[in-house]
Amino acid sequence: MKAALPAGLQSYKRTATFTEATTPAALLNDHSTKAGVWGLIHVEEGSLRYLVTDGRRQHSEDILTPESGPGIVEPTISHKVAANGPARFYVEFFR
After folding, report:
1. Non-local CB neighbours of 73 within 8 Å, separated by 6+ positions
2. Alpha carbon distance 29, 49 (integer Å)
3. How far apart are CA 64 and CA 46, in angstroms?
4. What is the pLDDT of residues 1-23, one digit of tens each?
């Protein structure tokens, strides 16, 4: 990942655990967090494509797995995810 979670942030919320069948449509399409809100995408099982689509960053695609470590979501930067077959993941939010 290109970004890093800044020091001093605190976890304050997490989503439910999603599967390839239960991922909300909003996560499959371009979306972003609010200003000051970072996210970590934790893949518990399988693999997930994490695509950064924001014009302010170089477009990128990373394959997240339990072994790869979490995907880092920067505040206000558009992105989306897509499961690569069976997967389980959740998003943890920090500010």
Report:
1. 33, 38, 39, 40, 41, 79, 91
2. 12
3. 9
4. 456 799 999 999 999 999 999 99
Q: Give the CA radius of gyration of the chain.
A: 12
Query: For residue 65, how many C-alpha atoms fall within 13 Å in the half-sphere facing its CB?
Result: 6
CA distances from 70 to 41, 47, 55 (A): 5, 11, 22
Distance separating alpha carbons of residues 54 and 76, to the nearest angstrom: 9
Q: Is-contact 27 78, C-beta < 8 A?
A: no
Would you say 83 and 18 are in contact if contact means Cβ atoms under 8 Å apart?
no
**CA nearest to 18, candidates 88, 81, 68, 84:** 88
The per-residue pLDDT for 35 is: 98
